[in-house]
Design brief:
Elements lengths: L3 H22 L28 H7 L1 H4 L3 H31 L11 H33 L4 H21 L5
Helix pairs in contact: 2-4, 4-5
């Protein structure tokens, strides 16, 4: 049989756990994760401009392009070099973009946050310009291997991909 003293200790322990139990029932608000509720809207952080990689598109559309085996092997070599050159740039762009996830709409950003957001946007701009330059160099090397009809077809595929990505939002192709 429990004494009043033990009942008081058990009751106070249960009462002290009530806020934690209530918070655990809220969506996105567990004891271990301090996230915002899913219903709270967020402003967009840093937007990354479209990157259309014509070399990847040509490799993906090999049958339509009627590439010879020799062309395909050389273009694949150009693609691999381009991918390894751009990989650190893409990683940096992704990390900066994740760093500056949007803030809740009703939150006023501080001056320091605005300054760092401006710096982050300039880093994104610089990195995407470098990526675009690398793609342009790889495109020139690839076009040296293609016939005139293949070049025209590659441009059409790239234009179609650019229009589709603009309609769908942002991303990499």
């Amino acid at each position: 049989m429990l004494t009043r003293w033990r009942w008081a200790i058990i009751a106070s322990g249960l009462v002290s756990l009530m806020p934690a139990l209530a918070a655990a029932q809220m969506p996105g608000m567990g004891a271990l994760s301090r996230r915002l509720p899913a219903a709270l809207k967020r402003e967009s952080g840093i937007e990354v401009p479209q990157t259309i990689n014509i070399v990847n598109l040509v490799v993906q559309h090999r049958p339509e392009m009627a590439l010879t085996d020799t062309q395909f092997v050389r273009i694949l070599s150009i693609k691999r070099t381009l991918d390894s050159t751009n990989a650190p740039l893409y990683r940096r762009v992704d990390s900066v973009q994740r760093l500056f996830k949007g803030v809740p709409i009703f939150t006023e950003p501080t001056a320091a946050h605005r300054d760092s957001l401006t710096a982050g946007k300039s880093v994104i701009k610089e990195m995407t310009a470098d990526i675009d330059d690398n793609i342009a160099d790889a495109k020139d090397k690839m076009f040296a291997l293609l016939t005139t009809p293949q070049k025209e077809q590659a441009e059409q595929i790239a234009d179609k991909a650019k229009k589709a990505s603009e309609a769908a939002g942002r991303g990499r192709l």
